[in-house]
Amino acid sequence: MKEKIETYLKLVKDFVPEGTEELENFRIEYLGKKGVLNDLFSAFKGISPDDKKEIGLLLNQLKNLINEKIESFKEIFSSNERTGKKGYNFDLTLDPAPVKVGSKHPLTIVKNQLINIFSRIGFTISEGPEIVDDWHNFTALNFPKDHPARDMQDTFFINKNPDYLLRTHTSSVQVQVMQSQKPPIRTISIGRVYRNETISYKSHVQFNQIEGLYVNRNVSFSDLKQVLYYFVDQFFGKEYKIRFRPSYFPFTEPSGEMDISPIKGKTKWMEILGCGMVDPQVLENCGIDSSIYSGYAFGIGIDRMALLKFGISDIRILYENDVRFLEQFVTE
User: Fold this and answer.
1) Are 258 and 244 in contact (CB under 8 A)?
2) Which helix (H) or strand (E) holds 215?
3) pLDDT 10s digits, 304-331
4) Cβ pair 164, 133 in contact under 8 A
5) Tens digits of per-residue pLDDT, 46-56?
6) How far apart are CA 121 and CA 44, in angstroms?
7) Which residues, in sequence order, are bridge partners of residue 157?
8) Pick the residue with more confidence: 182 or 324?
9) Among 254, 230, 255, which residue's Cα sits nearest to residue 242?
10) For the domain bounded by 106-329, which CATH number is listed?
């Protein structure tokens, strides 16, 4: 019976009447007292209970399709009668209805640019789960037990004891990579991250991040600086000055912040990323011998790069799906 219904479904779907008479014959054939649908529903009463759910769904689908087909062509033929047309006619030479050209979201544009830049110098792409345990997100990265990021008001925990949370950075992916691969490692980790930041009216609980990691023998801070100089040159152009400032992150030592400023015009330094040499203890936590290997890491906010790239003043507009805003990027 299932095969018979599926055959009728195909026949009804492909049916295109030439006029009202053929449509009426179709209605009688399927919906009349001695029609196909009545015969099928009579046969339905005799099938086994195990098959009734599946067959019943197919029967209802067929019934709805028949009614939709009849109603749609009734409307077409009625319209043709009012306009003097006969049958189911349309002008194939007419231009199609205009369709607006779509575009990539500015975050996608920037993400693809960043991937392209770092892929050209040998970085592979790594992705991982957005729900992680405490060890991958905090402990392996040297976050102390009393660190503010572990508090409920700063991080979205979804389970306690054991602790599971929405990752606060893609460094958790770097931990997984270091656990599963032997050096040399050169990778960028990309994805959404989540932080409960409510200190500002412009705060946002979700943003996108790309983090770079390089682990090998004899890696130095100068290697890190050269990669970041290259990144700024490729992404922003040569019209920017660069400076590094000392900073602190639990998982890097020494740590730094990188700022840029336009060469021309009024000097205004803007922080664009954090970076540093991977702390030896983090390497050891991930099973890598820190007496042999060293490495560097950096983290870039894709949202911030999009704001700077396109001169956007409010991060929230990236997530509002306002067509008036998005259509500006059709040419990108």
Assistant:
1) yes
2) strand 206-216
3) 999 988 988 888 899 888 888 888 887 6
4) yes
5) 888 888 888 88
6) 66
7) 165
8) 182
9) 230
10) 3.30.930.10
DSSP 276: E
- First-to-final CA distance of the chain: 53
Give residues with Cβ within 8 angstroms of 94, minimum separation 6: none
Alpha-carbon gap, residue 73 to 76, rounded angstroms:
5
The proportion of the chain whose per-residue pLDDT surpasses 70, expressed as a percent, equals 90
Asked if residues 118 and 234 have their Cβ atoms less than 8 Å apart, the reply is no
Tell me what pLDDT residue 83 has: 53
Which two tokens mark 130? Answer: 């957005």
Q: CA 62, CA 74: separation in Å to the nearest integer?
A: 18
pTM (2 decimals)?
0.67
SS3 content of the chain, % helix, strand, coil (to 5): 45, 20, 35
pLDDT in tens, 219-254: 999 999 999 999 999 999 888 889 999 999 999 999
Q: Is the dihedral of CA 153, 154, 156, 158 positive or negative?
A: negative
| Contact partners, residue 247, CB within 8 Å, separation at least 6 | 255, 256, 257, 274, 276
Q: Which two tokens stand for residue 95?
A: 């231009």
pLDDT tens digits for 120-141? 999 999 999 999 999 999 999 9
Q: How confident is the model at residue 154 (pLDDT cuts 50, 70, 90)?
A: confident
- Residue ranges per domain, the chain? 2-83, 106-329
- Report how far residue 324's alpha carbon sits from residue 105's, in angstroms, rounded to the nearest whole number: 12
Residues 173, 191 contacting (CB under 8 angstroms): yes
Residue 257 phi/psi, 5° resolution?
A: -115, 145
Longest dimension (CA), the chain: 89
* Cβ neighbours around 209 below 10 Å, total: 21
